[in-house]
Structures are given as structure tokens and as C-alpha cells.
Model the fold of this input.
Amino acid sequence: MEQINKIELRGLVGGVKLQEVGGKKVARFTVATNLAYTDRNGGAVIDTQWHNVNAWEGKKVSGLENLKKGNKVWVTGRIRYNKFTGMDGQEHYSTEIQANKLTIIDDDDAFPCEM
Done:
């Protein structure tokens, strides 16, 4: 049986933190995705979800220095769950996307529809 841990996000970049670790660039940033629907009363609702993304410079991830707030991006990668103990002694959990491909989109037409 093949095991798969794959996610695809297309959305807008929030905050960006660019660092260099061991001679490689890494970007830690957020991506907002929206789901629009109509509630029971017929009102329009937009549900925004924020995703934490880590992208290490590599073959399919380049141009990290061009990544900025408001960019439209297409990210593919895998989900990673982290558990850590905070300074308060409590266990905390976080979820992040480890990007293995990152594309900054200039035009909405660049999003092929593969549903």
C-alpha cells in the first residue's frame, strides 16, 4: 500500500520571515486560503484559514527573496505536526506545511484546474 502525505495550497501570502541556515535560504511564511459559502439564512460567508509554511531553497523552490506579503502562491508539500514544551512547561502543538514546490503566481489564469 502506498502511503501519501501531500497537500496543495493556492492562496495569498501573509507575513514572511527569510533566513539563511547552513548556507541555504529558508522562508517561513503564512498562506491564507478562503472558502466561500452561503449559510442557512442565505448570507454569504467567507471562511479564511491560515497555514504556516516552511520552504527551503532547492531545485523546485527558488526566488525566496521575491516572496512578500500579498503575493499569490501555489505551494505543494507535506503536512508536519510538531509537539514541543513551552517555557511555561506545558506541551504545545503546531501544524506546518513543508513545501517541496513553490510558485509565485502573477496571474489567476496560471492556476490550472485539476479537481
The radius of gyration is 16 Å. The mean pLDDT is 90.
